[in-house]
Amino acid sequence: MATNVTIEVRGNRCERCGHEWIPREGAEPRVCPKCKSPYWNKPRQKKRERMDQK
Ligand SMILES: [Zn+2]
Questions:
Q1: Is the pLDDT of residue 7 over 60?
Q2: How far is the CA of 40 from the centre of ligand 1 (A)?
Q3: Contact between residue 37 and residue 30 where contact means Cβ atoms under 8 Å apart
Q4: Ligand 1 centre from 15 Cα, in Å?
Q5: How far is residue 7's CA from residue 42's CA, in Å, rounded to a whole number?
Q6: How many whole angstroms from 54 Cα to the centroid of ligand 1?
Q7: What pTM was estimated for this model as a whole?
Q8: What is the pLDDT of residues 13-54, one digit of tens each?
Q9: How many angstroms separate the alpha carbon of residue 53 from the centre of ligand 1?
């Protein structure tokens, strides 16, 4: 059976490799500890909506 775990703690999830980890307090990692991607918290944009914001 598949393990179904709901993470309710403040965790980080890499948008690149899907890695999830618990960050240390007061320090948000700049890169994913697994794939070392600096864009782990920045989902890739599907559409160009640069004019959406003022
Ligand atoms: Zn990653």
A1: no
A2: 6
A3: no
A4: 7
A5: 20
A6: 31
A7: 0.56
A8: 999 999 998 887 776 678 999 999 999 988 777 766 666 666
A9: 28
pLDDT on residue 38: 93
**Hey, what amino acid is at 28?**
E
Whole-number Å distance between alpha carbons of 45 and 28: 22
- Cα of 27 vs centre of ligand 1, distance in Å, is 17
Cα–Cα distance, 35 to 17 (Å, whole number): 7
* Separation of alpha carbons 54 and 20, rounded Å: 33
Structure-token pair, residue 21:
């980890």
The identity of residue 50, as a single letter, is: R
Both tokens assigned to 19: 């890695």
